[in-house]
Amino acid sequence: MVTRPASDEQSADAAMAAHDLAAANGDDGYFDPSTGLFVMTADYHLRRGACCDSGCRHCPYT
């Protein structure tokens, strides 16, 4: 399950749009529009095969 980042609605929408684009392109992640940090997609985490317990934004294992 993909979750929204804990921030204002506009930033959350921009992050989700960036996630969806990266996932559609088969990219491992995207640069968060608000922070500039690289964020792994849910698909990347599924390919990885396990949770690393780092609290990743799009972790499908939580």
Could you outline the blueprint of secondary structure elements for this entry?
Blueprint: H1 9-25, E1 29-31, E2 38-40, H2 42-48
Antiparallel strand pairs: 1-2
The global form is: globular
Please state the average pLDDT score: 88
Note the total helix count: 2
**Secondary-structure element sequence?**
HEEH
Helix content: 25-40%
| Termini separation | 8 Å
Q: Could you give the count of β-strands?
A: 2
As a percent range, the share of strand residues is 5-15%
* Major sheet characteristics: 2 strands, antiparallel
Domains, number: 1
Structural class: alpha+beta
Low-confidence stretches: none
Entry keywords:
62 residues; alpha+beta; two-stranded antiparallel sheet; globular
Written overview of the protein:
There is one protein chain. The chain has 62 residues and is an alpha+beta fold. It has one domain (1-62). It is built from 2 helices and 2 strands. The chain has helices spanning 9-25, 42-48, and strands at residues 29-31, 38-40. It has a two-stranded antiparallel sheet with strand order 1-2. Strand 1 and strand 2 form a beta hairpin. It is globular. The mean pLDDT is 88.
In a nutshell, what does this entry contain?
By secondary structure, the protein is an alpha+beta fold.
